[in-house]
Structure formats: structure tokens, C-alpha cells
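note to self: dont lose this again. the chain is below, predicted strucutre after it. 449 aa total, dont forget to put it in the shared folder this time
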Amino acid sequence: MRTLFIECNMGASGDMLMGALYELLSDSQKESFLKTMNNLFPNQILIQASPSEKCGIWGTKMNVVILGQEESENSVPQHFTEHTHTSNGEHADFGHLHISYPEMLTRIEKLPISNTIKEHARAVYTLIGNAESLAHNMDISQIHFHEVGTFDALMDVVGCCLLMELLHPEQIIASPVHVGTGSVRCAHGILPVPAPATAEILKDIPIYAGNIEGELCTPTGAALLKHFVSQFTPMPPISVERTGYGMGTKDFPSANCVRAFLGTLNALPVPAPRQLPDSFSPGILKFPNQEETRPDYYTEQFHSLDQILELSCNLDDMSPEAVSYAVTLLREAGALEVYTTPVYMKKNRPGTLLTVLCNLQEESRFSRLILTHTATRGIRIQPCYRRTLDAQFRKISTVYGEITVKISTGYGISKFKPEYEDVAAAARQCKVPFQTVYETTLEVCRKKL
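---
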């Protein structure tokens, strides 16, 4: 399986990721990439891939030149310094310090790039916008980006999305992320590392502080990792074809770079679906004009594909009671689903196919339970994708009393399902058919929800 592994031993920023991925391209692809990027804002922005050395290691430093002047901390006028992001490689734009979330989506929409790249870029900025919204307790439509809203950060995001399309790995994995320690000065003052928005984006991702003073992982870097990477783990066995080094701006005792490996993973892979895979046609996606600012609109559109495992085994020497006990035990242990299927095995012996669905990190626990409580000597493990609707439960008042209803929403879809126990209890108490209570509850849902 063609695999991209990203080593985040010195954190990650947008330009460092772009530099590392750029080095994985062929010479012709590099030329095409730079041409595409430099046509996004002709006569306004120039992208340069420059050789750079850190601690004796050479790699690529991606530089953004705006209006004839390269963006750097030294080029920002003094009264703008409070907005300068003193990070690995992201800086403030002295021409436009604030840009709103809807404005950023509109800017991305107008770029002369494919719809797939636009969707990825919008999804990355949605992650950043949601994190900023939670960190500052503001509606996402009111968020105005400082560091991450600048031209160079926009180019980093779009550049990384374009590079992912050019490289087209089947799965993307990364190491745990080094975030650094200490504090960082940004638009809102001096904040602890990782900054609140970065910490929000990095939820559910393994991170560590280390002993290097400074902000190693930026919001843009965190959002790009969160969007594209399916699993954060030490490097698995990979037959490496190419290695890329993306260099940061600052000098540290350790080489300030992101390292990327492109190769083949021969072991059992954990698939890495993108949040917006080519196989999913986002027909319902539409982006509002500036008057439409529903705060929950964007998060609803960018559901990710869940990654789960299917564990299965054939059983032909267990009693039905023993199989039932094992199924009950596995379900009580927290499996996503457990079910059995009648099958015919060798010599046409009747048997049972046991199937257990679980999360990736729970595989070893459920494998041990299956091996302990069934007669099987082996388990088949199959990675699966699933797309799910969000679920919530509400009490609905009907003429038969209160009924709990499961409400499933997402992708512009809404479904209602009255809970069996409440419907059955109401039918018994009111002495009416089960279906009468069920259909009455559905009718109330259609009118009120």
C-alpha cells in the first residue's frame, strides 16, 4: 500500500509540511506545482522553493513573496508586531491582518484550482475556525483570522492540499506531534504553548511537550495533520522510495524540519480515508454568501469517514448457549456491533460466523476476548470505512405520553426513530396497538422537529 509517513519530531507548520511534501515530487511535478501556485495570485504572490540547511541537514524552505517583499518577522512594520506569529514558519500579513471565516471560504472558492483541492482547503479552515470559535467563545461567523488568515498561510494550506493530490498516497500516517513548551506572543497577547486554538485542533491526537522552548506546532500545521492523517503512531515498517525535508524558519538545538517518507507499507494496513474522498460526491455542498452565516452549517458538511475494524471467525464446535454467552459478553464490553450469521463449513457442517465491529484502538482487547470465550484459534481482521449520521435523543410529548425519539442528522438528512421501550410501554398502558403509538410519535416529530 502506497503510504505517506510524516515525522513530527519538531512539530509542524504549514510551510514546513509544504516543503517536505514538495521534495517528494519528481522534477517535472515540482515545476508544475510551482507554476500552479504562482498562478493563484499573479503579480501579487510568488512562491519560492529555496534550499535550506538546519544542523547540517539540507531541505526545502518554502518562501512566500508578497508584492515584491518576502514575508518575514523583520519585514513587518513595528505597529503590526503584535500580530506576528512567532512560530516555526508562519508570519503575519502586513497588508491584511484580519479576514473573516466566510471571507476566507469565498477567497478559496475563487481560486483557479480543482474542486477537490478547494474542498480540502475549506475543510482545513473549518477545523481552524471551529477551534478559534471555541477558544475565544465566539460564533464562527464572527471569527477574524490573524496569523492563519494571511496570504502565506492560505498558500500553505492550498499548497499542501495540491501536493497531497499530486502524491496521491493510499494512506497517510504521522508520528505523535512535538508541540514545544513555554509561551508564544500572538494577536491576543502572550499565550501558553500549545496555543488554545492549536490545543483544540490537536484533541484526540497524541502530543508531547519535550524540552524545546517555543511553539513548534502551529494552528495551520495542526489542522492539516488533523484533516489528512488517519493514524498517529511511531513509524511502521515501510519500504521507503523518497524522503523529503521541509525546513522551518527558526534555529533550535535540533534540526527544525518536518520529514516525510513516501513508500510501501507491506504489513496489514490501516486505511487512511480522506475527510473528503473522491468516492464521495458532495452534491449537497454549497457555500453561503456573506449574508448567510449559520454557525453550524460548515461543521455539518465536513463529516469524516470513521475507521473501524471488523473482527470475524468461524465457529463449528460451540453450543448455541456458549455462542450466545460470547455475543452478550462482547456487546457488554463495548463493541460497536456484534452479530452472528449461519454458514456452512467444510464437509457441509453447519457453523456460525461471529462478527465484531470495534474501534481501531480496541482491536487487541476484543481479539483477546474472542480467543478467550470462543473455540476459534484465529481471527480475521478487516479494516472498514463507515459514514454515520449524528444522533441525539429527545423526549416528545404525544397523546400517549412522553416518547424518547432518536434524531439522526447530517449531510442535509434528518431521520426520526421512536425508541422501542417507550413505545411498547405506552401501548401497554393505553391499550392501543404498538404501531399506533409509533406512527403518532413520528407524525409529531414531523410537525415539531
